[in-house]
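Q: Mind making up any chain with structure tokens?
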Amino acid sequence: MIPQVSRGWSITIGIAMILLGLVALSDQIVATAMVATFIGIILLLGCALSLIKVFTIHGWKSHLWYAIVAIAYAVAGYVFIGRPFAAAVVFTLVLGWAILIGGIFRTFLAFKLRHHQGAGWILFSAIVSIILGALIISQWPGTGLYILGLFLGIELVFAGAGWLGLGLATKKE
């Protein structure tokens, strides 16, 4: 069975991802700091939710684990917000692996969609992701201050191009 592809959603998602990528590429250092700060905020929210959970569960063992998780989230969030570039250097390695693995999975998706005319675009974007992930990992930690924003922008542009290409190649229903 051939998976269905929504032409409109593929085109919309493709354009949105390309635009987000261009914003990140316009200033990689700022994009890196923003990503690190955003992660810190999310971690602090996770801390707050874990603390709420501490007071809404029964049993000492559960309290202890949720408190430990809350403390870990708080420390990590503080580091990401207070020292965004130091956190970005470490996070760059994690991002490299995520982009590499995402490219590998998109390769499998491209072969699953091989019966669609625009599936080659998904494969192309997957290959670019694999190369970008490998570059991030191989150059770490030296380029950790700007590479996060730069490669994130490139990744978004090429992933968006893949979805846009697939959407444009899909016949109207």
Remarks:
- Residues 114 and 134 are 25 Å apart (CA to CA).
- The two ends are 18 Å apart (CA to CA).
- The chain has one domain: 7-169.
- DSSP finds six helices and no strands in the chain.
